[in-house]
UniProtKB/TrEMBL annotation, chain A:
Record SUPFAM superfamilies: PLP-dependent transferases
Name of the protein: Cysteine desulfurase family protein
Keywords, alphabetical: Iron, Iron-sulfur, Metal-binding, Pyridoxal phosphate, Transferase
Catalytic activity: (sulfur carrier)-H + L-cysteine = (sulfur carrier)-SH + L-alanine
PANTHER family, alphabetized: CYSTEINE DESULFURASE, CYSTEINE DESULFURYLASE FAMILY MEMBER
Residues in Aminotransferase class V domain copies: 4-373
Record flagged with keyword Transferase: yes
Family recorded in the similarity comment: Belongs to the class-V pyridoxal-phosphate-dependent aminotransferase family. NifS/IscS subfamily.
Cited InterPro entries: Aminotrans_V_dom, Cysteine_dSase, PyrdxlP-dep_Trfase, PyrdxlP-dep_Trfase_major, PyrdxlP-dep_Trfase_small
Cofactor(s) named in the record: pyridoxal 5'-phosphate
From TrEMBL, chain B:
Keyword Secreted on entry: no
Family: Belongs to the MnmA/TRMU family.
Subcellular location: Cytoplasm
Main location: cytoplasm
Pfam families: tRNA_Me_trans, tRNA_Me_trans_C, tRNA_Me_trans_M
Active site per database record: 101 (nucleophile), 199 (cysteine persulfide intermediate)
A single GO molecular function term of this UniProt record: tRNA-uridine 2-sulfurtransferase activity
Residues covered by the tRNA-specific 2-thiouridylase MnmA-like C-terminal domain: 283-348
Name assigned to this protein: tRNA-specific 2-thiouridylase MnmA
UniProt gene name: mnmA
InterPro entries, A to Z: MnmA-like, MnmA-like_C, MnmA-like_central, MnmA-like_central_sf, Rossmann-like_a/b/a_fold
Stretches assigned to the tRNA-specific 2-thiouridylase MnmA-like central domain: 208-273
Phylogenetic classification of the source organism: Bacteria, Bacillati, Actinomycetota, Actinomycetes, Micrococcales
Organism this protein belongs to: Actinotalea lenta
CDD domains membership: MnmA_TRMU-like
HAMAP family per the UniProt record, alphabetical: tRNA_thiouridyl_MnmA
């Protein structure tokens, strides 16, 4: 039996979502068509927009459907930089935290080829943004910053970022803020009206919806230059035929995840804490990365550890051979694990960063999953250590 | 047995893994990532290091129904194979990086890691045979298909590690059979071209790679009497026996072609001369790896000096780590750094790295 502890990579689709999508799949209709079939499809899209907006505290007109989190991040970073830089050519700077997902970091770094100056803001040991560094950067160059991007919650080590503090500081300089909330919605209370970020990336498949659909929630009146040009379906900011079935699945999944949140948060945090306690018992020198769960600064479903003397390649193989699906937590190129830029930014030595494992829980996780990991762990760590010495 | 099948993304390793599965072993596929800056697509005949090769390996594992992982051995590869390659050229020798890769990566780093993780053997697509003697000792033999035989580049692994190596292609009669078998099994690499260039040298431009990594260091090209005949950009760019690319402006007085006779890093000079001066009658090897029992440490048979070189009749004797080889017929252009493998019949007796060569009059046919 396979134990799936990689919900931060993707989590099973909610059965009600699958059912609703399946029921809709055979129905024809392009939401941009004016006939009856088109109008029916449009109604589904707009209802979905309203339902998603309600689930995250946004206004429906703020929701721009995308193909997922990566597209939303690209649209936010490039679209905001192009628009702000065009409006005020002195604004060349992009401020991002050093622990952003590659879907934010890489567009930002690419913008350097367009004349942008990219500043990767440092973080503390637990991955929390160094707000003093942001203050210093804004004080020195606040009138030359085009956009700030700081993620809501980190995908590898689960750190919750002080997004509201970032927004308050950046807005004082008239700088828009983007936040990647892909790992937050469904795991943390997310009220976009309260946080007042200007652009927020969301995705369906991390919260029980389908892969291939996401959204960028864009504050009304904010200028964005499109990344995808074409029919202009989404406020002329994003083109492409709207995915009626996908957005309907996304909206339903978001509603279910948000309504389930209080119960799931406590349950998943309990599983996570049980796993952490068990690991500390069995492998005393394993190191927790990211904030202490008791601090309240960590998403409830994430546990990230490094095992001294072990290679991630070996750990993953051995866990897999014991039927446990987990992750090294870091970005991959054709399956090759690179030392995590997140851990390095947290001050972890490269040699320690290699022995990383991320366990992430979700709706289908059970105490049996924790027991299976703990049953496998002594053998896994012993063998991985031996392989690390080889 | 629990078997780790090294999958390069090529046809040989895929069929080898398939045969291990057929034999009833519990097989796991591993693709070794040997470079951190990998090209997206395979170009021409370059090794196995592109993302496309990794994808091919993954699809073969899918077809075989075995788990598949990519292991990052790029740091070890850089520190051993590439570093040795550069150091050897810098020292005026001619290394064989494929031998070093088998020595340091496939049958050390990979094999040791596999053993620690609980595997009983590593399976590769090499063409060679392993035999088990009455006393349980393993011996390494040439493949049935002499044209594809790779025992020469495997001998460096030594007898102890043979017990944990598996070469399912040793008995096949030709590469065509392997391709036919791959196609019959539905493996998507059945028609993929063979690779033979160095996998870590971009565009196959070894000279460019050496220049980039070792730097330009101009010096003289001289004849055997020390007369300057031309200039070079770096002595590392030359291999004993090389004829082309010497950059000499004037032909030899006798009009005959000249060859590199010696590369001397100490004086940064390259010595060139007539073909007969290249003739080698014997050699001294270091870092000997004995397959024969140490008793006597002597033997006679044939010595092979290149991956696809013709074996020549030879006699040898040595100590635990040194080897003296006398060649019954002269060979041309043997360079320090090359690997020598001595065979008795089709069985490997000893392997060593050429340290010194003994030149002698060439009484050969085309002297």
């Amino acid at each position: 039996m396979t134990r799936y502890l990689d919900h931060a990579a993707t989590t099973p689709i909610h059965p009600q979502v699958a059912e609703a999508m399946a029921a809709r799949l055979g129905v024809v209709g392009n939401p941009s068509s004016v006939h009856a079939a088109g109008r029916e499809a449009r109604r589904v899209v707009e209802e979905s927009r309203e339902r998603l907006a309600a689930a995250v505290g946004a206004h429906p007109t703020e929701v721009v459907w995308t193909s997922g989190g990566t597209e939303a991040d690209n649209l936010a970073i490039k679209g905001l930089w192009w628009a702000r830089h065009a409006a005020d050519p002195r604004r060349t700077r992009v401020l991002v935290s050093a622990v952003e997902h590659h879907a934010v970091l890489d567009p930002a770094r690419w913008l350097a080829s367009q004349g942008a100056e990219v500043v990767e803001l440092p973080v503390h040991d637990d991955g929390r943004l160094d707000l003093a560094a942001l203050d210093a950067e804004l004080a020195a160059h606040g009138d030359r910053v085009a956009v700030v991007s700081v993620m809501w919650a980190n995908n590898e080590i689960g750190t919750i970022q002080p997004v509201a503090d970032v927004v308050a500081r950046a807005h004082a300089w008239g700088v828009p803020v983007h936040t990647d909330a892909v790992q937050a919605v469904g795991h943390l209370p997310v009220d976009l009206a309260a946080v007042r970020a200007d652009a927020v990336s969301l995705t369906a498949h991390k919260l029980g919806g389908p892969v291939g659909v996401g959204a960028l929630v864009v504050r009304r009146g904010l200028d964005l230059v499109p990344v995808l040009h074409g029919g202009g379906q989404e406020r002329s900011v994003r083109s492409g035929t709207l995915d009626v079935v996908g957005v309907a699945g996304f909206a339903l999944a978001a509603e279910l995840a948000v309504s389930d949140l209080p119960a799931q948060t406590a349950r998943l945090a309990g599983l996570r804490d049980a796993l952490l306690a068990g690991v500390r018992d069995l492998v005393p020198d394993a190191v927790l990365r990211g904030p202490d769960p008791a601090s309240g600064l960590r998403v409830p479903h994430n546990l990230h550890l490094t095992f001294p003397g072990c290679e991630g390649d070996s750990l993953i193989y051995l866990m897999d051979s014991h039927g446990v699906a987990c992750s090294t937590g870091s970005a991959c190129t054709a399956g090759v694990a690179q030392p995590s830029h997140v851990l390095l930014a947290c001050g972890v030595e490269e040699v320690d960063a290699r022995g990383a494992l991320r366990f992430s829980f979700g709706r289908t996780s059970t105490p049996g999953d924790v027991e299976a990991v703990l049953a496998a762990l002594p053998d896994v760590v012993t063998r991985a250590r031996a392989a690390g010495m080889a | 047995m629990r078997v780790l099948a090294a999958l390069s993304g090529g046809v040989d390793s895929a069929v080898a893994a398939a045969r291990a599965v057929d034999a009833g072993h519990d097989v796991v596929g591993v693709h070794m990532a040997l470079s951190r800056t990998r090209d997206e697509h395979r170009t021409g005949s370059r090794g196995c290091c592109t993302i496309e090769d990794a994808s091919d390996a993954r699809r073969c594992a899918d077809v075989l129904g075995i788990p598949y992982y990519v292991w990052d051995l790029s740091e070890r590869f850089e520190q051993t194979v590439v570093a040795d390659f550069l150091a050897e050229y810098a020292a005026g020798r001619t290394p064989n990086p494929c031998v070093r890769c088998n020595e340091h990566i496939k049958f050390t780093a990979l094999l040791d890691r596999a053993t620690a993780l609980g595997f009983d053997a590593v399976c590769t697509g090499h063409y060679a045979r392993v035999a088990v003697g009455g006393d349980g000792a393993r011996s390494l033999h040439r493949a049935r298909d002499a044209a594809k035989d790779q025992s020469y580049v495997l001998a460096v692994m030594g007898p102890d590690r043979l017990a944990r190596a598996m070469f399912p292609l040793g008995e096949v009669s030709s590469k065509d059979d392997v391709r036919t078998e791959a196609a019959a099994r539905g493996l998507p690499v059945s028609a993929k071209p063979d690779s033979y260039d160095l996998c870590f040298v971009a565009d196959g431009d070894t000279q460019g790679f050496l220049r980039e990594r070792l730097g330009s260091r101009p010096g003289d090209v001289v004849d055997e009497d020390g007369a300057v005949l031309g200039r070079h950009e770096g002595a590392w760019g030359f291999t004993v026996g090389q004829r082309k690319g010497l950059g000499l402006r004037h032909p030899a007085p006798d009009g005959r072609p000249r060859y590199v006779l010696d590369v001397r890093p100490a004086t940064n000079t390259v010595v060139v001369g007539a073909a007969e001066l290249l003739s080698v009658r014997g050699l001294q090897g270091v870092d000997a790896v004995w397959f024969d029992s140490p008793a006597g440490l002597a033997g006679q048979g044939r010595a092979q000096l290149r991956a696809h070189g013709e074996p020549v009749p030879a006699r040898w004797h040595g100590t635990e780590d040194r080897l003296e080889v006398a060649l019954d017929a002269p060979v041309r252009g043997l360079a320090p750094g090359q690997s020598v493998v001595c065979y008795v019949g089709d069985r490997v007796a000893v392997q060593a790295t050429v340290d010194r060569v003994r030149r002698g009059a060439d009484h050969g046919r085309d002297g």
